[in-house]
Amino acid sequence: MGTLYRLPDLGEGISRASIVNWYVREGEHIEPETPMLAVLTDKATVDIPAPCGGIVRRIFAAPEQVVAVGSILVDIGAADQANEARFEETVRFASHNEGEYAGLLSSFPPPPPPPSSVQPLSFMPPKGTHQRIPLSGARRAAAEHLTFAQRIPSVTVVEEADLTTLDRIQGASGVGYIPFLIQAAIASFGETPLANAVFDEGRNELLAYDDVHVGVAVQTNDALLVPVLADAQTFTLDQLEERLVSLATEAHERRLKPADLAGATFTVTFAGHGGGLLATPLLNAPQVAILALNRPTRRPAVVDDELTVRNMAYLALTFDHRALDGRAAGKFLRDVRDRLSDPLRAISAGEFR
Fold first, then answer.
1. What is the predicted pLDDT for the residue at 100?
2. Which among 111, 113, 310, 342 could disulfide-bond with 301, CB atoms 3.0 to 4.6 Å apart, if both were Cys?
3. pTM confidence score
4. 286 prior amide bond cis, ω within 30
């Protein structure tokens, strides 16, 4: 009796994946739990192990093909089952706790992906040499996600932070901007808790969280990924820096797991010194707010009624107006600005630690 192996439920709401590469060939013998293929989901590249040992009798999905959860990927059978017509269909589901696979029997087809609420426009390309580049994996998911974000009634507010003193502290500590940005946001949630929340579209409810799970935007060659620092309120600045470096490395090397990109309640983004002077971020729905630190530059500023040169940077907060009003969003952003502009006070208060 052979095994028809279907694309497993990879969790985190993933309904489809793109085949990246097969590690096995038809006619080849494989051992149980050895890596069989790699798939690119909406969130990350995932290696899928063989559900059992045997001969790879047929591969049903080619590289770069997009397949839905439950679609047949491969037929695995014993060496003497080349003409066996009866199959045991095994659907394998990912364990959220250990990342392993457990077998379940099923003959039901997978549910179709939810239809898009946006109708595509017909398009006639202009004459001339061109190539069609299909969006796949993370880039396709980002395109769909951003399209959804655009329909949310969102507003952006902007403040300017003085990072001159913070730069001196960074030089002594070796900690980058993002850990300070995260801790400034966490401290500011104390007076604006609704900024650390997600909006439940289905029930038209706001879910405000006590724990802070921060998504941090990382630009890779494939797409913009947002790995998540779970329970960020428990981290010190040094621990945040270490974890951020690790997540960024895994993102660039395509080693992030789907669980690494799920569950954020708030997002921060910093394009670095190669970013723009002022850019307004799009919401990372269903979160209700995203905070951007723009490129710091030395420019004239008035300090104690005197004109001087300081290291200044614009902060931009985009928020879901269904969850926050302008007064609350503005206060939250000013609180973040004040903590970044006066880090010695934040250190004294235990907000930067």
1. 29
2. 310
3. 0.73
4. yes
